Amino acid sequence: MKMLSLVFPGFTLIDLAAPVQLMSLIPGIEFEFAWKERGPVPSDAGATVIAAHARRG
């Protein structure tokens, strides 16, 4: 199973980290992140996630 989360510059890190922590209990789950373009997306806490998916269109 894959979980795709939308991120954006300045997103609140705990809003992503908490669901990822909980969902990580599901065997075989994979996490991916999306933004309007692929690449690094900084959070409000300075941590960065890599958006592997970009908006189409």
Helix/strand order: EHEEEE
Unreliable stretches covering 5 or more consecutive residues: none
Could you tell me the radius of gyration in angstroms?
11 Å
Strand order of the largest sheet: 1-2-5
Number of strands: 5
- Work out the helicity level: 10-25%
Distance between the termini: 26 Å
Structural class by SSE content: alpha/beta
Reported for the largest beta sheet, the result is: 3 strands, parallel
Q: Helix tally? A: 1
What is the average per-residue confidence, as pLDDT, rounded to a whole number?
95
What sort of overall outline do the alpha carbons produce when their principal axes are compared?
A: flat
Number of separate domains: 1
Portion of residues in beta strands equals 35-45%
What does the secondary structure layout of this molecule look like, with pairings?
Elements: E1 2-6, H1 13-23, E2 30-35, E3 39-42, E4 48-51, E5 53-54
Parallel strand pairs: 1-2, 2-5
Antiparallel strand pairs: 3-4
Describe the protein:
This protein has 57 residues and is of the alpha/beta class. It has one domain. It is built from one helix and five strands. The protein has a three-stranded parallel β-sheet, with no helix packed on it. The longest helix has 11 residues, at 13-23. The protein starts with a strand and ends with a strand.
